Amino acid sequence: MTNSGTMTVTTPSDREVQAIRLFNAPRELVFKALTTPDLLMRWMHGPNGWTLAVCDVDLRVGGAFRYVWRKANGREMGMGGIFREIVPPARIVHAEQFDEDWTGGETVVTTTLAEHAATTTLTVTVLYVSKAARDAALQTNFAGGMEAGYDMLAEMLASLGGAQ
Amino acid sequence: MKASDYGQLPAEHLDATFAALANPTRRAMLARLASGELSVTELAEPFSMSQPAISLHLKVLERAGLVSRGRDAQRRPVRVEPQPLEAATAWLEGYRDALERNFRRLDAVLEDMKATAPRRTRARTTRRRSKR
After folding, report:
1. A13, A24, A81, B129: most buried, per Cβ within 10 A?
2. In CATH, what is the architecture of B9-83?
């Protein structure tokens, strides 16, 4: 429905949101970047200046992960969950829930990685407990950030400079 | 985190919009109407569907406010109402933008990873290909 460059976000069902994004790297690397704390902390920030400050990942079925984002003013936002399926480097299914439960219960996230010609197609499907939960969560959690918080991104893009 | 203006959209409007859009025939109808208003007969032409079936789809689109019907009693042309579609798109844009900012950072991380471990990556790719 919405498409910009290589990224697509759709609502495949009443309870889901699905994002599809291409990466110019083999899926082994993408899988590693999605599951290794040191690497996650470099990219998985929140909008408006939230950075990933704590990242623990016990990458096995039944293993737990814990993320805490932090803002410059000291505010924190935590989220954790359990891995349900791990098929490196093709598939991860995990359940997750924010400490302040704005998703109205845990969500189940299915991540798949398909590789073709050294390009990886990452598909992330988030299943919410209900349609209302999905809509509410997306409105409070993700909708912000068009107007503010671009400083960090701008800095990063500037520092990347000619690298791309 | 604060919701932006996009978060303030009445949820029930978005519900109707997304429900109406969750059908390939209705999306195709909207795509046809994008280039200008059409009568129901004209709109139905490319679809292998009865006129009543098309009318039902039209009603769903109308209820969602995605299309409106003209006043011309005979022809009652159907036209796209862009506003709900824009609202739905904006709502998804917000979500997409938050993800895309992270994914752009991930792009940079992956470039670093490729640069620091190029041999291992190439070896893995070769091995997998040779198995096929």
Report:
1. A81
2. Orthogonal Bundle (1.10)
> Are the Cβ atoms of B14 and A135 closer than 8 angstroms?
yes
Mutate to test the interface with B, among A2, A7, A122, A159 (most CBs of B within 10 A): A2
Q: List the domain boundaries for chain A.
A: 2-144
Q: Tell me how close the Cα of B23 comes to any Cα of chain A, in angstroms.
A: 11
- Ordered by start, the domain boundaries in chain B are 9-83, 85-131
pTM: 0.59
Cα dihedral B64, B70, B73, B76 sign: negative
Regarding an ipTM greater than 0.90, the answer is no
CB-based contact (8 Å) between A25 and chain B? yes
Distance from CA of B58 to the nearest CA of A (A): 20
B21 in Cβ contact with B27 (< 8 Å): yes
Chains A, B: CB pairs < 8 Å = 144
- Interchain contact, A33 vs B124, CB within 8 Å: no
The reply to whether residue A146 touches residue B91, judged by beta carbons under 8 angstroms, is no
pLDDT in tens, B38-92: 988 888 888 888 888 999 999 999 988 889 998 877 778 999 887 777 666 665 6
